[in-house]
Design a protein that fits this description.
By secondary structure, this protein is mostly helical. It has two domains: 66 residues, D-Maltodextrin-Binding Protein, domain 2 (3-Layer(aba) Sandwich), CATH 3.40.190; 36 residues, no CATH class. The chain is built from six helices and three strands; from the N terminus they run αβαβαβααα. It has a three-stranded parallel β-sheet, sandwiched between helices. α2 links the parallel β1 and β2. 10% of the residues are buried. This is Amino acid ABC transporter substrate-binding protein.
Length: 125
């Protein structure tokens, strides 16, 4: 696939789990491809593994993880956030663990984010 238009055509199988921005995107923007609705992320990934689905929309963090950990999975990202998919991640930890809090805050700083993005070949924008 070279574009979103290539994905949204008859015969392409898109798998999506219920709820969230991925489903919102598929419901609003996919008109021609076959949409397979699964119960959770594990089931959607299993469809990709089995090749009973061609495409799964997910966030960059999850996609990069799957590409690095799952043989045969290829993650492609867009330079910009897809319409209706913007979201924020939340990192929860015990509030009395100052060492961990300082480490996470350091990791989330712009400089470290850019260094990590380059290391893992992720577009930091």
């Amino acid at each position: 696939f070279k574009s979103l238009e290539d994905i949204d055509r008859k015969g392409v199988r898109i798998v999506v789990n219920p709820g969230g921005t991925n489903l919102d995107y598929v419901d609003k923007h996919i008109r021609y491809a076959d949409v397979i609705r699964e119960k959770d992320n594990d089931a959607t990934l299993q469809r990709i593994r089995e090749r009973s689905a061609d495409v799964m929309f997910t966030d960059l963090l999850e996609g990069t993880y799957y590409q690095n950990k799952e043989p045969g999975v290829f993650c492609v990202s867009t330079r910009s956030i897809l319409p209706d998919t913007a979201g924020n991640k939340v990192y929860m930890m015990a509030k009395d663990n100052q060492y961990l809090l300082d480490a996470v805050n350091s990791w989330l700083s712009d400089e470290n984010r850019i260094i990590l993005a380059r290391k893992w070949l992720i577009n930091p924008e």
